[in-house]
Design brief:
By secondary structure, this protein is an alpha/beta fold. It has one domain: Aldolase class I (TIM Barrel). It has ten helices and 15 strands. Bound molecules: nicotinamide-adenine-dinucleotide.
């Protein structure tokens, strides 16, 4: 049964109709050129407005923050206008939506960067075991290696912080209910947090406080623009993909949770490590995190109705995010409510393409 899942929960000043969150899902269907959200994207999100909260696909805050062709941005007027249509369509169906703010850092390739620039990172350490996704000069879409990054200068970091704040401001103008700062899954902010990718010797590297500094400055700058009660953060403790190596990630998460309380961050979204091969989160860690953090905790990673209820029952999470089930079942909430069968997601149409495997999954 799906009992607690279907009860309301309040994040900041916003009450969600249920605790089923649509996870952020890259679908690579922004219009070209310009990485602009489309009418088709609006239909897709509106179909899924039954979720208590939709978290948008990861959205590039700048061209520098882009690592995958066909992903949308939130740094031009056209992108903002495209997102406004998405938000209006979701709100018209009674839904709520958060925009996920994304900078990929070193998980990029010169082909998607302005003027073929090198990707940026905390340190000049290339991600060898990961890929970017590009449109080759002959027009062919292709995976591509992550190019060697250059280390960001200390003097550039206020600019990165300002880019997040500007993107968040655009998100609010587009009507989003929240913004989610993507500090997980091996991208720029997690590259700063992790010991293996951050070898800086300035005040943004070294001990835990220093490695957390950029994220905390981003949070403060975003909160100053939009209000902390509209800010969420995604973290992925024990994550190991994209060459992330971090022997302090659980301790860092506990430290950050305390800082999030200070900043008034409204929700903490945990991407569980299991799918990427990381050590599963322990019950002790989950319980400690619940004690430490005062806002709403949502967690994501291969849940179904039963395992989600069981997780909520432990009290270590307040809401559960579902990814693939929401791709294939726009009416996932109704299906869980009725104990109905689920459609199976088709992996071949996850990324890129048209309506097929995007807006054509049947509803009950
Ligand atoms: P993958 O290696 O198959 O693809 C990686 C990326 O390449 C995709 O996200 C997409 O941007 C791009 N891509 C691949 N094929 C494409 C195509 N035909 N057209 C356009 N773009 C294409 O990755 P995967 O195995 O599906 O994902 C691995 C994990 O990474 C997933 O389980 C997911 O949870 C995670 N993920 C995270 C993010 C994020 O944090 N922003 C984004 C995507 C995936």
């Amino acid at each position: 049964s799906a009992d607690k899942l279907l009860t309301p929960v309040t994040i900041g000043k916003t009450t969600l109709a249920n605790r089923m969150i649509m996870a952020p899902l890259t679908r690579s269907r922004a219009s070209q050129p310009g990485d602009v959200p489309t009418e088709m994207n609006a239909i897709y999100y509106a179909q899924r407005a039954g979720a208590g909260l939709i978290i948008s696909e990861a959205t590039n805050i700048t061209n520098q923050g882009k690592g995958y062709s066909l992903t949308p941005g939130i740094y031009t007027d056209a992108q903002e206008a495209g997102w406004k249509k998405v938000v209006e369509a979701v709100h018209a169906r009674g839904g709520k939506i958060s925009l996920q703010l994304w900078h990929v850092g070193r998980i990029s390739n010169r082909l998607v960067q302005e003027n073929g620039a090198a990707p940026v990172a905390p340190s000049a350490i290339q991600a060898i075991n990961s890929t970017s996704f590009v449109i080759l000069p002959d027009g062919t879409p292709s995976r591509a290696p992550c190019d060697a990054p250059r280390a960001l200068e200390t003097a550039e970091l206020p600019g990165i912080v300002a880019d997040y704040a500007a993107a968040a401001e655009r998100a609010m103008r587009a009507g989003f209910d929240f913004v989610e700062i993507h500090s997980a899954n091996g991208y720029l902010l997690q590259q700063f947090l992790a010991t293996g990718s951050n070898k800086r010797t300035d005040q943004y590297g070294g001990n835990m406080q220093n490695r957390a500094r950029l994220l905390l400055e981003v949070i403060d700058a975003v909160a100053a623009k939009v209000g902390a009660d509209k800010v969420g953060v995604r973290l992925s403790p024990n994550f190991v993909a994209h060459d992330i190596v971090d022997d302090e990630s659980e301790a860092m998460t506990m430290y950050l949770a305390e800082e999030f309380n200070r900043a008034g961050v409204a929700y903490l979204h945990i991407a569980e490590p299991d799918w990427a091969g990381g050590q599963p989160l322990s019950d002790t860690f989950r319980a400690d995190l619940r004690k430490q953090y005062q806002g709403v905790i949502m967690t994501c990673g291969g849940y179904d109705a039963q395992t989600a209820e069981a997780r909520l029952a432990t009290g270590t999470a307040d809401a559960i995010a579902f990814g693939r089930p929401f791709i294939a079942n726009p009416d996932l909430v109704a299906r869980y409510q009725q104990g109905a069968e689920l459609n199976t997601p088709d992996q071949a149409t996850f990324y890129g393409g048209n309506e097929v495997g995007y807006t054509d999954y049947p509803v009950l």
